[in-house]
Amino acid sequence: MTKMTPQVRCQGRSNCFACGLRHEMVCSDVSLDDLIDFHAGIEDFDYEHGSAIYHMGAPMEAVYCVRGGAVKMVRYDPAGEQRIVRVLKTGDVAGIESAFAEKFEHTAIAVGRVRACRIPISYFRKFVSDHGGLQMRLLRKSQEALREAETWLSQLMGGTTPARTRMARLFLRLRAVEGGDKIHRFSLEDIAAIIGITPETASRVISDFVRQGILVKGGNSYATRFFRGDIPALEKIAQEV
Amino acid sequence: MTKMTPQVRCQGRSNCFACGLRHEMVCSDVSLDDLIDFHAGIEDFDYEHGSAIYHMGAPMEAVYCVRGGAVKMVRYDPAGEQRIVRVLKTGDVAGIESAFAEKFEHTAIAVGRVRACRIPISYFRKFVSDHGGLQMRLLRKSQEALREAETWLSQLMGGTTPARTRMARLFLRLRAVEGGDKIHRFSLEDIAAIIGITPETASRVISDFVRQGILVKGGNSYATRFFRGDIPALEKIAQEV
DNA sequence: CGTGTACTTGAGTGGGCTCAAGCAGGGTGG
DNA sequence: CCACCCTGCTTGAGCCCACTCAAGTACACG
């Protein structure tokens, strides 16, 4: 079978070489041919706002590389309440936490419009076991995720820290691109599920930020909406008692 | 060089083969001789209550296998407040999160009397890179830790869930041995730093549990004290709104 | 046996929750 | 293209849990 360029394999719709996974996979001992083979089974999908990419407890059958938008990773506490434990952004890979488990550990839901590449788990596992150096890279990636989760724990949670401060910290973490001022605009319900408050309180704080000009609403549909944030002001609030 | 039995290498003070790491390392493709070599650099330490095993930001020079007692993993939020992000118990390994980083990610502090084996990081890294199958096992271990951290997030945190409920959930997780009724007894300050409340509130809830006979205080020094818990009662409270 | 730290307990306050009503604006169907 | 509708957001009033401040107690350790 004739090899095509990876771009074509990806149906010309995207450049797989811009993918976060590719960053992990090239280097080490992966040849270009291997990479092209790997890309053979990959498909490119659009997810509209609110649709699930996969569900907690469902059989683990693929990982997904997020190419645009934001994805919330949801868990449920013993009382059945929804809790958002992490947020993925462009370049992150959804599902690697569960890569060697039977079922997905979370439900992954699109926030706004999302594009993602679906990589069947059989391809993924085979590729990883064929290339020893990759395991090391995955290990690093997994440890990054752990660090991120712990950062959420220590910065976003905690009854002692006022909701206002934690919200500022959250918005700083929800920036679409590191260092930019564009902020993923989640629903009040989502924000509540992240930092552990009620939607009403979230609304009051945001209204306050908007009145002070610290946040400016943008976008004209749930799929594309966002905030512009006054980053220095948010950073100041984030450090308050 | 003559090989000695691992027990002797460990100065006869402990059986390295009961270690949580060993569980990861044996199986796969590690020979007994390799294991004995590996154990050559290991030392066995006692830590008294409150002493630090290592500090956040310090150069990463070893991992520690916890052989007895409990260890709190501490971080600091932007306001300088102490937050406990995870608790290690017998069989867990402290420092693997940072195994491929320059510095430690947390401060690790003994709660009660702790025994731990110190494994120099150079040994550890060499051993891992020599044995391909180990990376896979470490990856799994790392993903376990991630799951644990996210469980804390979703179960112990959250302003909506009453402190009483979260405390019950915490005590269930702090059992010394899975399924037992012996519970690691942390200071009020520590408990406060874990679930994000004040020590006063923690005191009130515990006093209440003790009055109801759900918890019974045991041990006669900070180094050895513990609770006995009425597990069914705690489980019932843990599921309340 | 003394000293200090950790814990207990109380009274008062306040931030965030609850319940409830009104509003806006995006999506849908006529 | 317009009007409706429904979801998500806003805003208010009152209450309650957990925080704060403060004092007193117990007990671990030297």
Give a structural overview.
Chain A is α+β, with helices and mostly antiparallel strands. The first copy, chain A, folds into two domains: 6-145, Jelly Rolls; 163-238, Arc Repressor Mutant, subunit A (Orthogonal Bundle), CATH 1.10.10.10. Helix content of chain A is 39%, strand content 24%. Chain A is built from nine helices and nine strands. Chain A has helices at 6-9, 20-25, 32-39, 121-130, 132-156, 163-173, 188-195, 199-211, 231-238; strands at residues 43-47, 52-54, 62-76, 82-88, 93-94, 107-120, 182-184, 215-218, 226-229. In chain A, the strands form two sheets. In chain A, strands 1, 2, 3, 4, 5 and 6 form a six-stranded antiparallel beta sheet that branches. In chain A, strands 7-9-8 form a three-stranded antiparallel beta sheet. In chain A, α7 crosses α8. The radius of gyration of chain A is 19 Å and the shape is elongated. The model of chain A is unreliable at 1-14 (pLDDT under 50). At the A-B interface, β4, α5 and α6 of A face β4, α5 and α6 of B. Chain A binds a DNA duplex (30 and 30 nucleotides) through α8.
